[in-house]
Amino acid sequence: MNKNIVIPLFGCLLLLTTGSNALAATSTARIGFSSKTVGLSAVNTRTAGTSEYVEIGFIDTNGIEDLSVPVLIDSTDTSLVAVSNAPVGNALGNYQLTIPANAIPGSTASINVSATVGGVNYTRTRGFVVAAVVPPVVVPPAPNAGVSTTLRAATPTLAADQSGCAAINYYDVGPNKAYSAISQLPWSKLQGCDTVRIYPKVNNDAYHEMMLLSAGTNLAPAAPNKFMRVIGMPDPITGARPIIDGSADTNGVLATQLETLPGQASRTLQYHDNGSASRVLYKLGLVMVGPQSGYAYNNGPAGYIGIENLDIRNAVYNAPFADALKGGQDTFSSFGTCLFVEVGAHLVVKNNVFHNCGNGLFINSKNSSLVELSQDVLIDGNRFYSNSNAPIAGVTNGFSEHNSYTEARDIIFQYNYFGDLRPGAGGACLKDRSSGLIVRYNTFASNCGLTIDLEDSTGGQQLIWGDAGYAKTHVYGNLFDQTVGAYGNNLIHYGGDSGTAANYRQGTLFFYNNTMRLKGDALNANYPEILLFNMDRPNAVADVKNNVFYTSPTTAGAKGKIQAMLVGHGTANLTNNWVSPNAAPYWLGHLTGAIVTGWNTNLGANNQTLFVNEALHNFRPAVGSPLIDAGNDLSNINLSNLPIAEPSQVAVRKQDWIMDIGAYEY
């Protein structure tokens, strides 16, 4: 079989190719080698007389470590570097790496690992240098402890899988199909192994209708490989996605909430709070995921649902729609959302467009309850733009709605595009209150005043802030192509806003191999016109490696925007970043309890040519760029979180022996 073999080698990435064709990143296999000892140096040097635990194993095409595959391990010089089975539990894949006490500083040796699978040989070499001193690394204290009793996914859900279905039941909607309108489908009866295919109308006119997806609630939850899917079928000529629109059509007919079921006297979607005196859910979302009316939460959340390839738009404040339950019309809330998830588990949201809504996406967790906890969510390849609201007196302050706003346990954002907010809006591109958060390979080409806003849990509460994943947040391989926002520019906020500071994020934010460019002239020599890291708690740590922090002017000869690396509190440990010369470790002239280490490891004495074509937004390193082969060791990063792709592309990151700085390889 022809394939690419990707071998992440700590700070180095090596590509071996067999055959003439290459498969996508999702079809790669590799050998992984990662340090498991917290607090050790992240560089290739090791001190004589020290030892550490390492994880070595074969990683299959799904990115899962397969410990059943035997690996062969040897050292080029066991007197300098030796590897043996780890003594703790003797678990497969765990080894102990030892540097003998008499090893001479400056000496070098390598560990060689190989495995043969399906006739293909996978190899990995890891070089070491014996050093005299181990550099200190700040280690954060453990977060608040907590244990969840809900069964969680053993591995992240990466597709709306129906491979376990004996048969797939198709419900086709569109011109000349079994159903001509979305409202004709029996939504409240759909379950795992059902697939709704929505076809474009003539000239791709919109469906002015609303949906509620509840698979796995009133019915027994489906198995992990028996998803219910809602798929937009692309226009055969233009490739455009079918449009779900919350506004009125050209004849003034309002978007409807209707569902037709045999023998049903009234026609209305089965919102969970339809039976309550104060109904709110129906005003919050155009497409909704959550339990139905009369459903007992104790049976668990809605789940095993895939929503793919739809253009969902126009759930905006005060826009009218038809209220099927009460009759007449009502209007969307300022929190009106393109896709609103009241509570859901095992969700795949892929290749959709969310725009012109209060929130593009909202995922909720509620009441600190396991049965109301959203979890195991994949947000993959979507486009978010023109969401949020400008301030509206007595309605919204302009900072409460966002392109994306989520709270879940275990959630991945990958390959998404985040564009500008609606004019005058002050929301975030990505606001999140989750544990187990991974943000990778996304493009933030936006004017968001706050690009990524990482707050504390307010719905899942101890089930999230007590979860081990709450203390480790990974942001890597992203492009931040920013323009000046209405309320200034802030890259990352890490902390909370509930007022209960003990529950704020105060673990480690792993921020590595990202490329940030902010375009605009400097306005004030002493004011940081972009705040890079704003951390609320003194125990918080940002592990900042191999990133580009670049500002360029709009006017030729002017200076670019000024940067402040860290404001607030906490510690930022810097290693090998390229930083424009108009940056400072702190906000000049302001007292701070923050600590920046490793400032002297930064590159960037001047804004020399970095990219292939900045004007065309091609941020790949140019010929002769100082970013090429300047990346540093990522040995403290888990195997599954090494950067192997590029922003907004499901493609292998170009590999060579040493990783480049930033989100792209030369």
Explain what the structure shows.
The protein is an all-beta fold. The protein folds into three domains: 3-131, Immunoglobulin-like (Sandwich); 157-421, no CATH class; 447-666, no CATH class. It is built from one helix and 51 strands. The chain has a 13-stranded parallel beta sheet with strand order 12-13-15-18-23-26-29-32-35-38-41-44-47. An eleven-stranded parallel beta sheet has the order 14-17-22-25-28-31-34-37-40-43-46, with no helix packed on it. It has a ten-stranded parallel beta sheet with strand order 16-19-24-27-30-33-36-39-42-45, with no helix packed on it. Strand 50 and strand 51 (649-652) form a beta hairpin. The two termini are 27 Å apart. The model is unreliable at 1-27, 37-43 and 133-150 (pLDDT under 50).
Note the beta-strand portion. Answer: 35-45%
What can be said about the biggest beta sheet? 13 strands, parallel
As a whole number of angstroms, the C-alpha radius of gyration is 26 Å
Decide which structural class fits the backbone: mainly beta
- Fraction in helix: under 10%
First and last CA, distance: 27 Å
The pLDDT mean sits at: 84
Low-pLDDT stretches: 1-27, 37-43, 133-150
The helix tally amounts to: 1
Q: Which word captures the global form?
A: globular
Q: What is the number of strand segments? A: 51
Number of domains: 3
Task: Give a brief rundown of this model.
The protein has 666 residues and is an all-beta fold.
List keywords for this structure.
single chain, 666 residues, mainly beta, Immunoglobulin-like, 3 domains, 13-stranded parallel beta sheet, eleven-stranded parallel beta sheet, 1 helix, 51 strands, 1% helix, 37% strand, globular, disordered N terminus
